[in-house]
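ASSEMBLY PREDICTION REQUEST
Request ID: AP-0331
Submitted by: J.K., bench scientist
Number of chains: two
Total residues: 446
Priority: normal
Notes: Please return the full assembly, not individual chains.
Input sequences:
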Amino acid sequence: MPETGVDGRTSPTPLRVPEPTVERLSTYLQFLYSAAASGLTTISSAHVESATAVSAAQFRKDLSYFGEFGKPGVGYVISELQGRISRILQLHETQPVILIGLGNLGAALLSYPGLTEQRFEVVAAFDIDPKKCGRTVQGVPVYALSDLLTECARLNPRIAILAVPGLAAQQTFDLAYQTGIRAILNFAPAVLKVPAGVTVRNVSFTQELAVLSYHIKTDQLDS
Amino acid sequence: MPETGVDGRTSPTPLRVPEPTVERLSTYLQFLYSAAASGLTTISSAHVESATAVSAAQFRKDLSYFGEFGKPGVGYVISELQGRISRILQLHETQPVILIGLGNLGAALLSYPGLTEQRFEVVAAFDIDPKKCGRTVQGVPVYALSDLLTECARLNPRIAILAVPGLAAQQTFDLAYQTGIRAILNFAPAVLKVPAGVTVRNVSFTQELAVLSYHIKTDQLDS
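STATUS: Completed
Returned structure:
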């Protein structure tokens, strides 16, 4: 049974959804793709729990932010749930994304198959190296960073992936902000200062490794 | 002033440190490296706040889990704070890491300069493609996955980076677990089922993009 929101309404319009809930929606969507690929047409919350390590109760609570889902005795119709979660995450239509920085990591991201599967389309890549510009990498045209404003006016991307060196990150963000982009996936080892209204998700490999390293120490070496 | 821990002790031995605190320690360490590189020898918590977007109060609270830091009127001596945070994160000595999966992403990770800067050393890479094995990539020897147990017995890595396809992730983890590795940085688009005592940090590019996509919708399109 869906719960009412914190404001007592059952409207499907989310007011303030916790960030971990949004993160888990993507996990559910990924699970639904695999379940459909394995020939299933419906799933239960117990099913979700065993496949994703998210508890059945948490799954139902996460969905409850967005209205009523599932039918008693039937469970969740996969195609319907997929459609609704895709719509919530704005993934029911292709999302144009740009990549800034075509070093090793940027190039690897272009060949990452998961992006197109979830309807993220990298429509352009930008770099400061003139040797890289004017070419096409993995089907994506590469432009000079100085063409960012012009190309973005034409392509209207909503998300920018920053894969530039740490020292270049802030000025690259400032430039991307001028194009109207308000959502940033930041791989640069730098803390971006951003105006209100901008969403940044940071991916820091060294930070992830440092957290693991901490746990090795406390969990294993000391025991 | 350092606060006492939740248990009322000021012992430097952490009991239960919140995960976000551990994550921020890595951010502080990165900031300290930049501050030292710019010629500073001491910093203040206000300094940290302006550079990292973590409040001065949060910074002091995070440090308080680990004992007393800083001196009134002087602030924090950078070299001392670096040394202590490095030690907490077990980054004061080189951490041997292995990489499993040498596709585009794995190869990009090997050339990521941040790893060696923070004393993570990829000591071996493993792949199932015989054409990749027996070679050296970015100075890292590449072995067949079937040699994982043998090579890990020799190299004693504490952390494994999984950069394999989603469908191969669980069986690859199971194999890594047999080597004694209990810390996993998982790039595979899959939810790993792991025994107690194993720490997994998941990096999912599509999940990060999905969260951004969600915010574009609610923050921009609806307003």
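REVIEWER COMMENTS: The domain at 19-88 of chain B is CATH 1.10.10.10 (Arc Repressor Mutant, subunit A).
SIGN-OFF: pending second reviewer
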